[in-house]
Write a structure and sequence with these properties.
CATH topology of the largest domain: Rossmann fold
Strand content: 15-25%
CATH superfamily of the largest domain: HAD superfamily/HAD-like
Shape: globular
Oligomer: single chain
CATH class of the largest domain: Alpha Beta
Order of helices and strands: EHEEHHEHEHEHEHEH
Number of domains: 2
Strand order of the largest sheet: 5-4-1-6-7-8
Largest sheet: 6 strands, parallel
Number of strands: 8
Length: 204
């Protein structure tokens, strides 16, 4: 029988993203990011004018961050040790919503932090890519971990057999994001790796 498979998101699950993105915006672009919202398109304002940053510019800035400033990201507390433990019992891969040309840099970034994991890039809903990864690995069972409710909804629709854990390791935004467990699309919501690790181990 093949090994179990864990498919994990990266940003706010393995590595902090919002806080270094906020700091980079302020330092390099004169943009303030109010962390009281999970919606980037309503959270960014120009420091001088107070005007909202236009939606297209938000996504341009986010892509620039991944082009220029991924080195600012650091691991979520407990993530490196937890993934190391899980890798003893299962195959672990990363499914990250980045443009494809960032795949190699994301792999290098994770390896630098002690996470030498295979990386799959994706744009849009993650369910179809989860299904494709499962088709390649043919695992005995699969666990999907992500910080955003919409990806759990996509996974629940496309691959209902997958066990789904909603985990947001960034405490500044965790209270503000929609809960996939409450919506019925994730089997649990746990926002710290100390608690999440035994939960995942019990299910692989």
């Amino acid at each position: 029988m093949n090994r179990p498979l864990i498919i994990s998101d990266c940003d706010e699950v393995l590595l902090h993203m919002v806080v270094p993105f906020r700091d980079w915006l302020a330092e390099q672009h004169g943009v303030l990011f109010e962390l009281g919202s999970a919606d980037f398109t309503h959270a960014l304002r120009h420091r001088e004018s107070g005007a909202l940053v236009e939606r297209e510019e938000v996504w341009r800035l986010l892509n620039r961050f991944f082009d220029d400033a991924m080195h600012r990201q650091s691991p979520i507390a407990g993530a490196v040790a937890a993934i190391g433990e899980l890798a003893c019992h299962a195959d672990v891969v990363v499914l990250t919503n980045l443009l494809d040309h960032h795949q190699a840099e994301r792999s290098r970034q994770l390896e630098t932090h002690g996470l030498p994991l295979r990386v799959f890039t994706n744009q849009g809903p993650k369910g179809p890519k989860i299904r494709a990864i499962i088709g390649e690995y043919a695992p005995s069972r699969t666990i999907f971990i992500d910080d955003l409710a919409q990806h759990h909804g996509s996974a629940a629709s496309e691959t209902p057999e997958v066990t789904r854990l909603h985990l947001c390791g960034e405490p500044l935004i965790a209270p503000h994001i929609a809960c996939a467990h409450r919506a019925g699309h994730a089997h649990a919501r746990i926002d710290d790796w100390q608690t999440a690790l035994p939960w995942v181990l019990e299910r692989i």
